[in-house]
Write the structure tokens for this entry.
Amino acid sequence: MTGAEALPEQALTATAAITLAVVVVVVGACVIRLALEETARVRAARAVVARVARDWEGVTPVASPTSTEGPVRLQQQRVAGWSVPDGAVRVSRGTPWGNPWRAGDRVALPSHEGSVLVTPELAVDLFAAWMLERPDSLEAAVDELAGFDLVCWCPIGEPCHAEWLLEQVRLRSEVRDLTFIK
């Protein structure tokens, strides 16, 4: 085979290689974009959780429902005579605002092979991502829970979806306040 006969075949191979490289880059970019959108939602939820955790680090709130600092999270008690205080709303499982993910359970996540053990932190992250994907439900929860203390079974000092809900209520309230400032 002479050099002249090999040239068109090499050109075709080079063109095919370039086309394949472009296809790989485009498909890779689409996959990366989808992954980044998904991780951005989870990252946003984790940022809120981290901010709440930092705010409450080392603090064991023993606030009353009449606290002047705004609504707080209270722990549900199994003690004779204990009931949800006035000005408080239960947000545990069995209510419209309950977290369907329970610490200690195992769940399948698209980002992992097999199942993953749900930690309290992951349960809150999953709840946050779930609520952020359902903006109408989140907005309804924020409207219905505004001004109330929230009661859940999670121990005080451990991550809890009720703290995330309280943060959402506070953030939405701040945004609403800012929209009325002229």
Summary: Residues 3-179 form one domain.
